[in-house]
């Protein structure tokens, strides 16, 4: 027999899904801004290994000459990003949800076992708890990254007014680079997160949409067929 198991409270689901379009707008508008001065590349000597981003990228996504538009979107949505993030963190602190999220002393070992399992190198499945060690580490990291984006963003938004913060983060240029690296981090997180969600299946996804999962109820003993009569 099947039973419904309550998984995510409505507030967590709202915070999570509201964050998706906000983060999308932040990344997209950030790219419009970045186009106006795009110095980052990875190079050895004179050989450029990775150029963020080649001209074809801007052209394909129509990102060129839209600096003012990018700034307008970025500076409106940053408040929503901040508000949603702060309310989420407050909620997890007040209602104890942080207990499922913050890594504990088993998390790193567990995360390693989950990685081996996902790579097909370990047979034993990860523990069927709300969040396994790998998830605890990834989710806590992405929340910290949110704080990082907020701080580095403020440091480059008002470097004069927040001169102390900008200095603490290594100065304007460094804070800008940190802000950029965090964004690359979200994109990487996003791909891994989506891959894991697809892997975990529909039931798990529905948990984040509707709040419950459908599980086998092992407490109900199914009726045994009667012994054959002689
Ligand atoms: C379309 C995009 C996304 C989908 C389909 C998705 C799906 C999910 C699902 C199904 C869970 C629950 C996992 C479980 O119960 O085992 C989850 C949790 C989570 N996701 Fe996403 N996600 C998306 C985008 C994002 C983004 C952009 C972020 C942040 C950068 C994010 C951060 C998180 C966090 C922090 C949790 C844990 C939430 C908590 O319980 O407090 N997700 N996601």
What does this protein structure show overall?
The chain has 230 residues and is mainly α. The protein is 63% helix and 8% strand. The protein has helices at 10-36, 55-60, 67-94, 98-101, 107-118, 133-157, 163-168, 172-200, 202-210, and strands at residues 2-6, 41-44, 47-51, 212-216. The chain has a two-stranded antiparallel sheet. Strands 2-3 form a two-stranded antiparallel sheet. A hairpin with a 2-residue loop joins strand 2 (41-44) and strand 3 (47-51). The two termini are 31 Å apart. The relative contact order is 0.13. Residues 8, 12, 16, 19-20, 23, 97, 101, 139, 142-143, 186, 189-190, 193, 197, 204-205, 207-208 line the site of protoporphyrin IX containing FE.
> Which architecture per CATH?
Up-down Bundle
Count of folded domains: 1
Number of helices: 9
Bound heterogens, unique? protoporphyrin IX containing FE
C-alpha end-to-end distance? 31 Å
By CATH, the topology is Fumarate Reductase Cytochrome B subunit
Mean pLDDT: 93
Residues in helices, as a percent range: 55-70%
CATH class: Mainly Alpha
Radius of gyration: 23 Å
Count the strands? 4
Largest sheet, strands/sense/barrel: 2 strands, antiparallel
Shape: globular
Beta percentage is 5-15%
